[in-house]
Write a structure and sequence with these properties.
binds zinc ion, Rossmann fold, six-stranded parallel sheet, 181 residues
Length: 181
């Protein structure tokens, strides 16, 4: 059984004036990302939106020292970007579409993702979203350590760091044994 993870494709990470934006590379994957997501929903697969949720008052969060405030709960910056927002809105009552608020880079950190996947007999994870070398990477590493097979949708991941993006794609394939499609 397979599932799709859709990671952090929000206004703050993609829009030109987003707080921590991937900009043009992030915007360039919109069409592919939406099409892949739609195809998984239509196939009846489990689709998980794993989305950063930060609080301005969270003074102990390590990202405070690394990045400007982003994806703050209750702000428009946390809304899904572009066509992906429409796909989610049209399917949010579908029990196979699941939303996870995450506090760290990995979708597995402090969430119930692993048990939700295991309950459904899912062994293969398809990853999409941003940033290739941060949240997608950390999610992939956790998935690898938990024994999942990985498939990375190369044209549905992006980063603000092109060197990091290319490095992460090589790491997925050469070190995590992922299939790149
Ligand atoms: Zn964050």
């Amino acid at each position: 059984m397979r599932a799709l993870l859709s990671i952090d494709y929000t206004y703050d990470f993609v829009a030109t004036d987003g707080k921590l934006t991937t900009g043009a590379p992030g915007q360039a994957i919109e069409e592919t990302l939406v099409a892949v997501t739609q195809s998984f929903i239509e196939a009846g697969d489990y689709v998980v939106f794993a989305i950063d949720a930060h609080e301005a008052s969270d003074q102990y969060h390590p990202e405070n020292k690394l990045f400007p405030p982003h994806n703050l709960v209750g702000t428009e910056g946390r809304a899904l970007y572009g066509g992906l927002a429409d796909v989610y809105q049209a399917n949010q009552d579908n029990p196979l579409v699941y939303w996870i608020d995450k506090r760290h880079y990995s979708a597995f950190s402090g969430t119930d993702l692993d048990i939700r996947l295991r309950e459904r007999g899912i062994t293969e994870l398809h990853l999409t979203g941003v940033c290739t070398d941060i949240c997608v990477l950390h999610t992939a590493i956790d998935a690898y350590n938990l024994g999942y097979k990985l498939v990375i949708h190369e044209h549905a991941v992006a980063s603000f760091n092109q060197v990091g993006h290319e490095w992460a794609l090589a790491h997925f394939k050469g070190t995590l044994g992922a299939e790149i499609v």
